[in-house]
Specification:
Elements (H helix, E strand, L loop, with lengths): L2 H31 L3 E4 L2 E5 L3 H36 L5 H11 L3 H11 L3 H7 L3 H5 L2
Antiparallel strand pairs: 1-2
Helix pairs in contact: 1-2, 2-3, 2-4, 3-4
């Protein structure tokens, strides 16, 4: 997987998570302020099951699907970055991505990789093969 593909996956995943979070929060707030929830004191004790309420539930579910889908795409981008950096002779980027990903700082590691990381497929393509070295 090339770095450009990993970058597109990562950015797409971030956009999906942000859009899903926005949709989830917006639908919950609109439902709250439109009287969909029956509130007594600090507790929600019921729901007015109107067609409008079901639209808010549907929008909230779409937001949750966006969050889940974006997270899965981000995980695929992280695994692709690990595979890409494992091909490099210097394993610094691989170790950085792996350790930070395991300790839940994968977003920071992926952001650094997208901005400044090397592409393992290009480095491998630039190295001459043994048959090319024999003729020189």
């Amino acid at each position: 997987m090339t770095k450009s593909t990993i970058t597109r996956l990562f950015v797409g995943g971030v956009v999906a998570v942000v859009a899903g979070l926005f949709l989830l929060v917006a639908s919950a707030l609109i439902a709250l302020f439109s009287g969909t929830f029956v509130i007594e004191g600090p507790d929600v004790v019921g729901i007015n099951a109107t067609p409008q309420a079901w639209i808010f539930v549907l929008l909230g579910l779409i937001g949750v699907l966006g969050l889940i889908g974006g997270s899965i795409v981000g995980l695929v981008a992280w695994i692709g970055a690990l595979i890409n950096t494992a091909q490099l002779t210097d394993k610094t980027w691989f170790v950085l991505l792996f350790i930070l990903g395991l300790f839940s700082f994968g977003f920071v590691a992926m952001l650094a990789y997208v901005i400044a990381g090397p592409d393992g497929t290009q480095v491998q393509a630039q190295q001459p093969t043994q048959s090319q070295q024999a003729w020189t």
